Amino acid sequence: MNVIEINHLTKTYGKSRGITDISFNVEEGEIFGFIGPNGAGKSTTIRTLLSLIYPTSGNAKIFGKDCIEFAPDIKKEIGYLPSEVFYYDNMKVFDLLKYSASFYKKDCTKRIKELAEIMDLDLTKKIDDLSLGNKKKLGIVQGLLHEPKLIILDEPTSGLDPLMQQKFFELLETENQKGATVLFSSHILSEVQRLCNRVAIIKEGAIVTVEKISTLQENNYKKFKIHTKTALDKGYFDLPGVSQLEVKDHLVHFLFRGNLNGVLQKIAETDITNVWIEEPDLEEIFMHYYVKED
Ligand SMILES: Nc1ncnc2c1ncn2[C@@H]1O[C@H](COP(=O)(O)OP(=O)(O)OP(=O)(O)O)[C@@H](O)[C@H]1O
């Protein structure tokens, strides 16, 4: 079952682009990454899902219901952490969380205390006195206190130290194991790789690809490094599928995508002393999608 269905969603801000014809689905139980550089359109997509802004065209459904028409119903089941959190500074942390909980008409006191313990958040402090990172933790507790079925996170880790990031990821994994679906927006590749099963990559307002993380890695190019006994002519490895070919003395480097047999045969036909074949890391794969086209 799809928890989120986005169909041809477009949002323009006056004459400027927000997002253009975005479509993808998030299935129940997934931790789904939404990744792209600054200004790509992640927040615009998320704000539309939450009916904080209206689409110019297209639509989106959450739990099978139109996200604008059924917004009040849907919001009860969503935990949202915005990229930037703002609060009325005069309130105490616990009072703000109780106030937030009152919207869901259930007693969340036990859960607030559990989450505060996990995230090491002092409930007795005034919001005014919290550091940026602690305000972020408050946002996390606020987003999760009603045990939502869908958790939407927009750049959630900015401001958290590495230990807290780790605790937060573990918390998300626990919620996911209990059944929550997670949409995780980020421009940080390593955290998406660590947490998500599938990703949508967004660039300049449009979806570039939607893939399993594992498939992204498998279908990509391989990196070859070959040490030869004698210096080779550069043309020797200039084969279809080869790119970024560099030959320096006895060392040959290139990237290869395609049928491996041809290139392995070429290697076998020359006198080599060593060969290394490596998978690109995820960062290199993403960079390929990120690069701006002129
Ligand atoms: N309120 C607004 N008015 C005009 N243009 C906007 C507005 N909000 C966003 N945009 C534009 O829409 C595009 C997408 O922005 P958005 O904030 O959705 O990107 P993002 O992927 O979330 O980026 P970031 O990682 O920097 O938050 C950008 O070109 C941005 O300038």
What does this structure look like?
There is one protein chain. β9 (198-203) and β10 (206-212) form a beta hairpin. The chain is an alpha/beta fold. It has ten helices and 14 strands. The chain has helices at residues 42-49, 71-75, 93-102, 109-119, 132-144, 162-177, 189-195, 213-218, 260-268, 282-290, and strands at 2-13, 16-27, 31-35, 57-62, 65-66, 78-81, 150-154, 181-186, 198-203, 206-212, 222-228, 242-248, 251-256, 272-278. The model has no long low-confidence stretch (mean pLDDT 90).
Question: Can you tag this structure with a few keywords?
Answer:
single chain; 294 residues; alpha/beta; Rossmann fold; 2 domains; 4-stranded antiparallel beta sheet; 32% helix; elongated; ATP-binding
